[in-house]
Design a protein that fits this description.
The complex is a heterotrimer. Chain A is mainly alpha-helical. Helix content of chain A is 67%, strand content 1%. Chain C folds into two domains: 4-229, P-loop containing nucleotide triphosphate hydrolases (Rossmann fold), CATH 3.40.50.300; 235-292, Alpha-Beta Plaits. At the A-B interface, helix 1, helix 2, helix 4 and helix 12 of A face helix 8, helix 10 and helix 11 of B.
């Protein structure tokens, strides 16, 4: 073949792939209209999937696991809150390969966390973790995750404490778990405990999505703290000037604040009409904020 | 053109004489059993079961034929040296490749059409009627055929420069990779290195995207498939086959037969 | 000047081998050779000498490392060249799911014949190669010799001006070989050019206008068989019988070779009469006296041995 022909072939292939690329973008649009979601999980029955995967169940579990991560990642990217498929996907995955640890850690985190960060189903998270513990009784980390779900999302401090205590019996477990179990048993919810737990997740998790989520929680906890302090200052302002401040600059001018306070992402806090501190309307933290019932 | 047609018809004749179409009997048995079983045990989901089962069988049987015969199209002729006398005729090598491709696609078309007819028979048996909405099943069958053509082209490409066994592995591998293109593209958002993410995205557009042709869910549930998707998928298969075959023809035109 | 049917110039072929095909083995070394139009040309050489390589290069089944060739004035890369050539591959094999008639019909379709022409030609060819009764049997049931005949039929199906046959006699019984010889002679009579390779020398001697001898990838000699072997007689051979009561033939008898009742004795031409007189005196009955000519085989063996001795390095590619 002459070099001329080579160039012609090269151009043809190049042009062809350019065409393929363009077509693919259009097909993607059409395909999303044909509702991909149902198709993503044609087989929801974990027993059926396990039967169909023969001796390759762990391999199929891996595929399902990538689908879980995929599904959740896409939902996050699209800022969608509908996580209905998260449980069936985790269900199938954990049945196919009960030893696949990331499934429990990741799954319980996002199943239990409240919308919009997670699916808001702590009950299913508990079910998943208990299934994990039946298959892997020596995995103290599952107790750790279980304690987490009870503490943060079910507000059941007795069970949270019990789970952490159970896990702490394992010699490999974090040494603080026993102490934390005792602390939760006596104090229940506390900012200090929450901060500690999330910080620990942040430091120890290997899952980037979980790590990101922990960071968000830490940022939100800090914002919560900041707001409380600003509110205290606003009370002080009211005492001095006889009215609630409506702008943050008023607090600065009065000398109560050295400069306008910002959240973890650098967005200044704002004051509501009632003179209460709030997150900036533009800060991404707001998207992950769990709105109190009744408020906008 | 006539020469390509001549090769194509002979390829079809070979498939028929090698009893490739016997798989239809197997398919008929599966569909009959499914229809009878479904008719007895399930109410309301006959359509879903029959259509999913039928389309899956059409797809799997078609894939087996495409990969195994597709790889053998060229390599078998070289191995058995049947090609030697043929290439001494006024037949260009690229015409041979195109003819072989067309021949197997023709075989697959006949085979798939027969299976589709069987599927509709089973559907009619359980529903006692056919509706307008059932045309979506026909579209799904058409998409399977497009997919098979692409698989044949890939199998031929690989068999042009490697051993049949490796060609089968490559084709199967690329097919499986092509089913996860969507996943590859979605692997972003802090999960992996952004550079790697971009690279994967690029690759995902270059890989043959076999997900495009999967509308089994829509077909089973009788959802409408937009006309634009039919046109685009057709164009996609044609363009992709053209690329693959062009490379195959270029390689084969320079290959030394042993 | 006679027209050239096949004109080969410096044709060279290296086969890569070894891991990653990095090493090269030369299987044809700068072959330059011409075949005149209307000539029957025999291409001789031991197995692996490069005969098939040359023919495959001409048929564009493999591509040369260097050099060029023209057939009927057209470069071999020109597809039009294939309209006027017929080719019988070595140990041919065809689609075994077809009958001989179907195969020939399939091949004929590449030559733009009408359906009627195709039918007529296929029947004629089957008859010519002696397969008219087997034309409706699938080729998978054919013997090697029958396949050889089908191969010959497809090679001459379209009345080509140049016919290239790779080992046309191999795998055939004596009757089949005779028939192939007849077909080649008939092609010659029709003015066709025939190039065929063989390692059976008697065939070449009987049929060829000229032969080319190739050993170890190199062309060692081209010419008419008689030219190559030389016309000078090497001596005389006396064939005689010795009655049982005959006297001892002395030293002469000791030199003779005995086969059955007969003896053969080779002598110098000058010593013929003395030898005959002495044999007569011994009571021998002389049956014939013939001139001994060197055969192509001797010439061939001479070349092969010379090649082996000269370059042990040239590996003969084992088939």
């Amino acid at each position: 073949m002459s070099s001329k022909n080579y160039i012609a072939l090269f151009l043809f292939v190049l042009l062809g792939f350019a065409g393929v690329w363009r077509l693919q973008e259009r097909i993607d649009v059409q395909q999303s209209e044909v509702a991909r979601e149902d198709d993503q999980l044609m087989l929801r029955s974990s027993k059926l999937v396990k039967g169909l995967s023969l001796e390759y169940a762990p391999l199929v579990a891996d595929i399902y696991w990538t689908r879980v991560v995929q599904y959740f990642g896409n939902k996050q990217a699209e800022n969608q809150v509908d996580l209905r498929l998260l449980w069936p996907l985790l269900d199938v995955t954990s049945v196919l390969d009960p030893q696949l640890m990331p499934v429990y850690h990741f799954g319980s985190t996002f199943l239990s966390d409240a919308s919009p960060r997670g699916a808001g189903r702590p009950d299913l998270a508990v079910e998943l973790l208990e299934r994990g513990l039946r298959a892997n009784p020596d995995e103290w980390r599952l107790y750790y995750d279980l304690g987490f779900v009870y503490y943060f999302d079910m507000k059941d401090y007795a069970k949270a404490s019990a789970a952490l205590y159970e896990g702490s019996k394992n010699p490999k477990a974090f040494i603080w778990m026993k102490a934390m179990a005792a602390k939760i048993a006596t104090e229940g919810n506390s900012t200090e405990t929450s901060n500690f737990l999330w910080q620990d997740v942040y430091n120890t998790t290997k899952d980037p999505l979980v790590k990101q989520n922990a960071l968000r929680h830490l940022q939100l906890l800090r914002a919560e703290d900041d707001r409380k302090q600003i509110d205290v200052l606003a009370d002080e302002y009211q005492k001095r000037f006889g009215r609630r401040p409506v702008r943050m600059s008023e607090l600065v001018q009065s000398g109560l604040l050295r400069r306008e306070p910002v959240d973890a992402l650098g967005y200044p806090y704002i004051l509501s009409e009632a003179g209460r501190a709030e997150l900036n309307l533009k800060t991404p933290l707001r998207d992950k904020w769990i709105k109190a019932p009744g408020s906008k | 053109m006539t020469r390509i047609g001549t090769v194509a018809l002979n390829t079809f004749r070979e498939a028929v004489r090698d009893r490739v179409l016997y798989n239809l009997v197997f398919f008929a048995l599966v569909m009959m059993a499914a229809a009878i079983l479904v008719g007895q045990i399930s109410i309301g989901i006959e359509q879903i079961v029959i259509v999913s089962l039928g389309l899956s069988a059409i797809s799997i049987i078609g894939l087996l034929i495409s990969v195994f015969i597709g790889v053998g199209l060229v390599s078998k002729e070289i191995d058995k040296r049947t090609l030697y006398a043929l290439l001494a005729k006024p037949l260009r090598r690229w015409e041979f490749i195109l003819g072989k491709f067309a021949g197997l696609v023709l075989t697959l078309t006949v085979n798939t059409a027969a299976m589709a007819a069987g599927l509709f028979l089973a559907l009619f048996y359980v529903k006692r009627s056919l509706e307008q909405a059932d045309t979506v099943v026909l579209i799904a069958v058409y998409f399977i055929l497009l997919k098979l053509a692409l698989v044949v082209a890939l199998a031929m490409l690989f068999s042009c420069f490697t051993t049949p066994l490796l060609a089968i592995l490559f084709t199967a591998g690329l097919y499986i990779a092509g089913l996860f293109v969507h996943e590859m593209r979605g692997l972003q958002g802090g999960l992996i290195d952004p550079m790697l993410g971009r690279l994967l995205r690029w690759i995902s557009y270059l890989l043959p995207n076999f997900e495009n042709f999967d509308v089994m869910g829509a077909a089973a549930h009788g959802r409408v498939i937009p006309g634009a998707l039919i046109a685009q998928n057709t164009a996609y298969a044609v363009v992709y086959c053209a690329i693959v075959l062009a490379v195959a023809m270029a390689i084969f035109s320079q290959r030394n037969l042993k | 000047m006679t027209e050239l049917a096949i004109d080969i110039e410096n044709l060279t072929k290296d086969y890569p081998y070894g891991f990653l095909h990095l090493k090269k083995r030369r299987s044809l070394e700068s072959l330059t050779m011409q075949v005149q139009a209307g000539e029957v040309f025999g291409f001789l050489g031991p197995n692996g000498a490069g005969k098939s390589t040359t023919i495959k290069l001409l048929m564009r089944l493999i591509f040369p490392t260097a050099g060029s060739a023209r057939i009927l004035g057209k470069p071999i890369s020109d597809i039009e060249m294939h309209r006027d050539i017929g080719y019988l591959p070595e140990q041919p094999y065809f689609y075994d799911y077809l009958t001989a008639a179907e195969l020939l019909d399939y091949f004929a379709r590449f030559h733009d014949f009408t359906a009627a022409e195709r039918r007529e030609r296929v029947q004629r060819m089957l008859k010519k190669v002696g397969l008219e009764s087997a034309g409706r049997i699938q080729l998978r049931k054919y013997s090697k010799g029958m396949l050889q005949r089908v191969g010959l039929a497809q090679a001459i199906l379209h009345d080509p001006a140049v016919v290239v046959l790779d080992e046309p006699m191999s795998g055939l019984d004596p009757v089949g070989r005779r028939e192939v010889r007849d077909i080649i002679l008939e092609l010659k009579k029709q003015g066709k050019t025939v190039l065929f390779s063989t390692h059976i020398l008697s065939d070449a001697e009987m049929l060829c206008d000229r032969v080319g001898v190739i050993v170890g990838g190199k062309l060692q000699g081209v010419g008419a068989p008689s030219e190559l072997v030389g016309v000078k007689a090497q001596g005389m051979e006396i064939l005689f019988e010795l009655p049982a009561d005959a006297a001892s033939g002395g030293e002469l008898l000791a030199q003779a070779t005995r086969t059955g009742d007969r003896y053969r004795l080779q002598v110098e031409e000058s010593g013929l009469y003395t030898a005959m007189e002495r044999l007569g005196a011994a009571g021998a009955k002389i049956l014939s006296v013939t001139q001994v000519k060197p055969s192509l085989e001797e010439y061939f063996m001479h070349l092969v041995e010379a090649d082996r001795a000269q370059s042990a390095a040239v590996e003969v590619r084992a088939k």
